[in-house]
Amino acid sequence: MFNTILFVMIGLQIVLMPFLKNYWLTGLFAVAFVLVARAMSIYLPSSLLKKSLKTTYKGITILVWAGLSGGNRMAV
User: Fold this and answer.
1) Which of 25, 54, 63, 65 has its CA 20 to 30 A from that of 36?
2) What is the separation of C-alpha 16 from the centre of its chain, rounded to a whole number of angstroms?
3) pLDDT for position 74
4) Are 74 and 3 in contact (CB under 8 A)?
5) CA separation (Å) from 37 to 29, 31, 34, 47?
6) Per-residue b/e over 36-48, b at no fewer than 16 CB within 10 Å?
7) Res 70: pLDDT
8) What is the pTM of this model?
């Protein structure tokens, strides 16, 4: 219920924004920055704690992409 209200409110804000090419470019850089920051925030600590976590890089990659599902919807 609250998720629906949130996304409707975001959609209404986008309708009111004027269409400028700079917004698309800024949005593209923002999404790329978030992807890199998310990957670094998971890969770096997990590489330092590799023996104590006992995970593989495949599992860590799943953590990176699984956490982005909601974030990508908000960014787009």
Assistant:
1) 54
2) 24
3) 60
4) no
5) 12, 10, 5, 15
6) eebbeebeeebee
7) 63
8) 0.58
Per-residue pLDDT of the chain (76 residues; tens, 9 = 90+): 777 777 777 777 766 666 677 777 888 888 789 888 888 988 888 888 877 777 777 888 888 777 766 655 665 5
C-alpha 8/C-alpha 67 separation (Å) is: 22
Alpha-helical segments (H) within 1-76: 2-16, 21-48, 50-53, 57-66, 68-75
Instruction: Give the residue from 64, 28, 30, 32 showing the smallest Cα distance to 46.
Output: 64
Q: How far apart are the C-alpha atoms of 63 and 44, rounded to whole Å?
A: 13
Q: Which two tokens stand for residue 29?
A: 């850089």
Non-local (6+) Cβ contacts of 43 within 8 A are 60, 64
